[in-house]
Amino acid sequence: MTTTTGQRLPEWFKVRFPGGPNFLEVRALLRGSALHTVCEEAHCPNIGECWERRTATFMILGDLCTRRCHYCAVKTGRPQGVDRDEPYRLASVVQRLGLRYCVITSVNRDDLPDGGAGVFAECIRQVRLAVPGCKVEVLIPDFNGNWDALQVVLDARPDVLNHNIETVRRIFRRVRPKGDYDRSLRLLEEAKRRWPHCVTKSGLMVGLGETGEEVLETMRDLRSVNCDLLTVGQYLRPSPIHYPVARFYHPGEFAQIQEEGLRMGFRHVAAGPLVRSSYHADLQAHAAGVAGLTPVG
């Protein structure tokens, strides 16, 4: 298997070609609803498996990001306005798909005073109205350190609040020039301080040139702010203009990372070559004890 950059992947990256009946139904439904998914926009390798399970990660607030992270395939540009009907369309699709667990993320919207927090909150409320009992995980940006915006999301009471640290401190600014490592940690810390019962989550990519000790250091930093759930996956270069892959981690190395994370006190760690932030998010939340959750079969 090769990537879009022509880079040969190790044998453990084999995935099934998408095209099952559920996959086709989900694709048609999403495209007919004018909604974006991170599955497509970020070129996720798990799209076939997840859509066949009738799960998807919705990407709200348009498909143009105001930041240019050097690892990300999402388009960068100047978004125009906010689609106020989006939360209602999203809730309708969640209902039509019969979802019991919904993941909502977004592009960065630094052009908005609240970074899009109000739309996140409205999406949570509308999903709950349309599908009572559906659990909602949000993967939020850093809101430029606007904790009032964070509070707007917390007030809507998501079942899991996710914010990805993405990489280790030494490499952070190289791949996320408009982000800040400590600001990301502070967001997770603030979420717990403002709502102690909040289930928090973060994700980390490996293969960008970090050392094993730096990975462990980042995991310890996340635990220092009481982060509950962790995902760790292999970075794959979306195109030749993106940050290069330094190396591919072996599945055995991911198993070691998972073991270390559990020893550190994370309630659940998902680590593997194809693990992404929302991959089997329902299973991870279920393992962490999110109340009333039965994972998708």
What report would you give on this structure?
The chain contains eleven helices and eight strands. The chain is of the alpha/beta class and 297 residues long. It has one domain: Aldolase class I (TIM Barrel). Strand 6, helix 9 and strand 7 (229-234) form a beta-alpha-beta unit. The longest helix has 14 residues, at 117-130. The radius of gyration is 18 Å and the shape is globular. Mean pLDDT is 87; it is low at 1-5.
Radius of gyration: 18 Å
Order of H and E elements: HEHHEHEHEHEHHEHEHEH
Pick out the low-confidence regions.
Answer: 1-5
Kindly give the count of domains. 1
Q: Work out the oligomeric state of the chains in this entry.
A: single chain
What proportion of the residues form beta strands (DSSP E)? Answer: 5-15%
Determine the mean pLDDT: 87
Shape, principal axes of CA atoms: globular
Alpha-carbon distance between the termini?
Answer: 28 Å
Looking at the structure, the CATH topology is TIM Barrel
- What's the total helix number? 11
Q: What is the CATH superfamily classification?
A: Aldolase class I
Helix content: 25-40%
For the secondary structure, the number of strands is 8
Judged by helices, strands and strand pairing, the structural class is alpha/beta
Strand count, sense and barrel status of the largest sheet are: 8 strands, mixed
Major sheet: arrangement of strands: 1-2-3-4-5-6-7-8
Name of the CATH first level? Alpha Beta
Task: Please name the CATH architecture.
Answer: Alpha-Beta Barrel
